[in-house]
Amino acid sequence: MISNLDEIQNIFFIGVAGSGMSALAQYLKGAGKEVAGSDRYFLPNVPNETKEKLEAEGIRCFLQNGEGITPNTDLVVVSTAIEDTVPEVQKTKQLGIPIIKRSELLALIAQSKKTIAVGGTSGKSTTAAMLYEILEQGGLQPGIISGAGLTSLIKEGKIGNAKMGKGEWLVIEADESDGSIVQYKPEIGLLLNMDKDHKELDTLMEIFTTFKANSKKFIVNQSHTLSKQLSQNIAFDFSLDVNSGAGYVATDFEQQGFIVRFKINDVPFQLNTVGQHNMENALAAVAVANQIGVALTTCADALKNYQGIYRRHQVLGKKDGVWVIDDYAHNPAKCAASIRACQPVASKVIAWFQPHGYGPTNFLRHDFVQEIAAVLRPQDEIWMSEIFYAGGTAEKTISAGDLINDLAALGKPAFFVANRGDLLEAVRPHLTQDCVLLLMGARDPSLEFFATSVWEEV
After folding, report:
1. Which segments constitute the Mur ligase C-terminal domain (predicted)?
2. Which residue from 198, 183, 178, 192 is spatially nearest to 125, judged by alpha carbons?
């Protein structure tokens, strides 16, 4: 088994176009490794933006037929979605090349730096991006490995989800959904929250308890009932409650359109984004940065210029009084927070959601219904299209229409349009001169293009 990065030079990624895989590929290329990869979305004579950006970084891209794996390959990396029956995996085994999971490789990378691992069921990508920007502003030249592209890096022509920093600090997302978070032994572990998402709460508590044990310093959200139970030292922690005793407290929240203002330990902050949840994400990032030497005023300066991340309340524009916003929200807490964040922007919010995965949707059915029902104002609406199916052996025993029926039974204005291609025609009579059309969903790589098409045609 590979024990450190110095043992490998030529690395091949199966499924390199995925956000998690492409991030590691770019990071390792920046670290001087020879990197290549394949993906099922790489097709002959078909343009692919991710492929083009990877190749621009010097990462060779191949069709998913095995041709890119050779005897010179030192290591093959697979995601949890890649099964042993994939021909490329079979060829790798025939050549005797070591195979590791993406999470195992990330753990190896984390060993090579002073790592800050951002954990929690919501807000990881945003908090990691904010923390990266703060450390960059503070002159620490950090690296980042994220699940989403930072707008500041995308504007440089990159995918934006990774950068090999010259400094000693590395910011990573630590994923609890597949349990891989327990593999990391960071200098600082950060726990944002703990909500039912893929796993039951008792299982999540076990996972995050191990995460705490593996972290030299552990910082938690004292505003969250479950996460605060894992506090290592309340002076490290952050909270929205001035009476909590936490070392970092946010107060005086206000939102005006697409700008939020607040104070952290009496220092004024401003973000060009929406929602109290983003104030909480910023508070978490500031708590970490300040403890490694970045002044609160420097943190404030960095966040004032924070440009956001890909598909996190991404404002596509406004036409005839209708704002169109694209968001990655995909679990009950995130969907509710996303809707709530849009409510100060307009008098009506029409939220559309495409659930992903039949198993997760069935598991979270009650939670989706309760969270969304609780946040909707009388004038707001919730729309859904059918569940995104990514393949595999899932039992299709639930429909997004079932969630809509549950919401309608609670008296909520809820509408089901099975084919999302029919959404705009159906929703158009419901649009007003002062509303937000919020598009939510994850995992489906075509959602970006769907959102763009809605914006163009609205």
Report:
1. 311-443
2. 192
